[in-house]
Amino acid sequence: MITPVYIQLLARYNAWQNENVYGAANTLSDDVRRQDGGAFFGSIHRTLSHLYWGDSVWMHRFAETPMPNCSIAASPDFITDWAELCTARASLDAVIRQWADNVSEGWLKSDISWYSGATQREWTKPVSGIVVHFFNHQTHHRGQVHALLTRFGARLSDTDLVFMA
Asked: What one-character-per-residue DSSP string does 81-109 give?
């Protein structure tokens, strides 16, 4: 069973690694960030836009924050301006950390129900597994972005959890 302390750790890690990824991406030109590098969503920018969208959707379900106004298909183009995406990401990471600081053991033991536009159906699952999915999804797509950043010559800092301050 996951605990609130574990979620707080992953929320800190998420923010730390987003700072790392966005910092490295900021060293590249906008053209390079938008270049199709063969990742699932194509470019660095489109992948990070999708990731921001996905995190926003889950935070809506977890903490009743505003729901993004587009579908998963449109998520790679949800935020097309780089500076806006950077600002939105930092703000959302603060929301995620605040949410994590208030997660209760009882909530983690409950179920969550939601309608998935991707599957066009209602789902009910244990919260603990969905929260693990939330953080795993972030790591999955940041890994894709990390590969693209490396390919395009950007340098990232440590990514290992054990080196987080």
From this structure: -HHHHHHHHHHHHHHHHHHHHT--HHHHT
Please count the other Cβ atoms lying within 10 Å of the Cβ belonging to residue 80. 12
Residue 101 resides in a domain: yes
Q: Is residue 25 part of a domain?
A: yes
pTM to 2 decimal places = 0.95
Specify the CATH number for the domain of residue 40. Answer: 1.20.120.450
Written as one string, the DSSP assignment of 12-67 is HHHHHHHHHHHHHHTTS-HHHHTS--SBTTBSHHHHHHHHHHHHHHHHHHHH-PPP
Q: Is residue 135 part of a domain?
A: yes
Q: pLDDT tens for residues 116-133? A: 988 999 999 999 999 999
111 vs 26: CA distance, rounded Å: 39
Range of the domain at 61: 4-159
CA distance 143 to 63: 26
pLDDT tens digits, 39-72: 999 999 999 999 999 999 999 999 999 999 999 9
Of 82, 16, 71, the C-alpha closest to 48 is 82
**In a domain? residue 165:** no
